[in-house]
Design brief:
Radius of gyration: 24 Å
Number of strands: 0
């Protein structure tokens, strides 16, 4: 009897410790977001004179309306949606198609192009910002949405092709060979077999592309000079200056830019979790 009591006590203690650790790390993950949320309702004077951890004395809702109007966030929000949506769709489809060609249609040409794209993964954005600026000027794409989109897609393709090629390599060749014996063309094989099976890596790639494009600042700030072309991260910068910063509106602008990403995860959390888990098992 004492043995069972001891085992039960150990089980309870272990469960308590596990939940305590999980609650601690959950709080650590949520705390920056909660701090940002509460700080977005403070005035600049209150933020500077009171404790940074204190709740707002007066909930200054006007920070959000002022940030939206003064920062032209309507236009910037639309631009971010366009850049993120188009880049994600194009990178996703092109990467899976290229991964299918590189993984299941081997040749000297596909091998050469695959190695070229893999090398592109090693090239950082800081190395190519100035060349991209001059190229955009020479081609007339500077300060245009098309120019920004082309750069986002070009930068995201190497990593996308690398991930999809490695994943599609794990798909049995017998599936493609069986379909070819049945007379299916490669285009049908791609849409009926490869594309559905590549859903896990597609979800992973979509997450990387969406978060990376939505939060990107440097490239769009270099390639765009007018407000109608810039994106949300550039708009957030307006409330931070070299001599003074409007903290309340800056925090409100940050919350406006963060909410869509949180909403995206909240809506698609089930699909994201399933896709990442399936990709981990497949690998």
């Amino acid at each position: 009897m004492n043995v069972f009591v001891k085992k039960g006590a150990k089980h309870i203690i272990s469960q308590v410790l596990i939940y305590a650790v999980l609650i601690f790390f959950t709080f650590m993950a949520l705390y920056p977001l909660l701090w940002l949320f509460f700080s977005s309702f403070k005035t600049t004077q209150e933020y500077q004179l009171t404790s940074k951890l204190a709740l707002p004395q007066v909930w200054w809702w006007r920070n959000y309306s002022d940030a939206w109007v003064r920062g032209h966030f309507g236009t910037l929000f639309l631009n971010s949606i366009i850049y993120t949506g188009v880049s994600t769709i194009v990178i996703l489809y092109c990467s899976i198609a290229a991964g299918f060609a590189f993984a299941k249609l081997p040749s000297k040409a596909t091998g050469f192009f695959y190695k070229t794209f893999v090398i592109g993964v090693l090239i950082t954005l800081q190395c190519i910002m100035i060349p991209l600026f001059f190229m955009a000027n020479w081609t007339g794409l500077y300060d245009t949405r098309l120019g920004v989109l082309i750069c986002y897609i070009g930068i995201g393709m190497p990593m996308g092709i690398y991930l999809t090629t490695e994943f599609i390599c794990s798909i049995p060749d017998s599936l493609v060979e069986s379909a070819r014996i049945d007379g299916a063309p490669y285009l049908q094989i791609f849409f009926d077999i490869i594309f559905p099976m590549a859903k896990p890596v597609g979800i992973t790639l979509a997450i990387l592309t969406i978060t990376g494009t939505w939060n990107e600042f440097m490239l769009v700030n270099i390639l765009a000079s007018s407000e109608k072309i810039k994106s949300l991260p550039v708009g957030v910068q307006k409330f931070s200056g070299a001599l003074a910063s409007d903290y309340g509106k800056q925090f409100a602008a940050l919350m406006i830019s963060v909410i869509p990403i949180i909403g995206f995860y909240g809506v698609f959390r089930k699909q994201i979790t399933q896709g990442v888990a399936a990709g981990a098992v497949k690998g």
